[in-house]
Amino acid sequence: MRKKTSIKIQAKLYATLAKYAGASIMYEPIEVEVPAGATLIDLYDRLGIPRDEVKTSFVNSVMQPPEYTLSEGDTVGIFPPVGGG
Known about the structure:
With 85 residues, this protein is mainly beta. 9% of the residues lie in helices and 31% in strands. It is built from one helix and five strands. Strand 3 and strand 4 form a beta hairpin. The termini are far apart.
């Protein structure tokens, strides 16, 4: 049996990060193909999101650290720091 070399995940980019999705509608999921064994950091890099613009990421509704390894079919929500006053 052949080992997978890439996986597909769904990513949702919120607030100011939506611009990196290339989508005109915020919160719309995009399908992203990443290498098997990719982490959240690899996903940020693949999408061109500077790491200092990411505050929190959830994988399948559970908060995960940037080093978390993604799996086929995961749904990822990526959030920027909250601003305002």
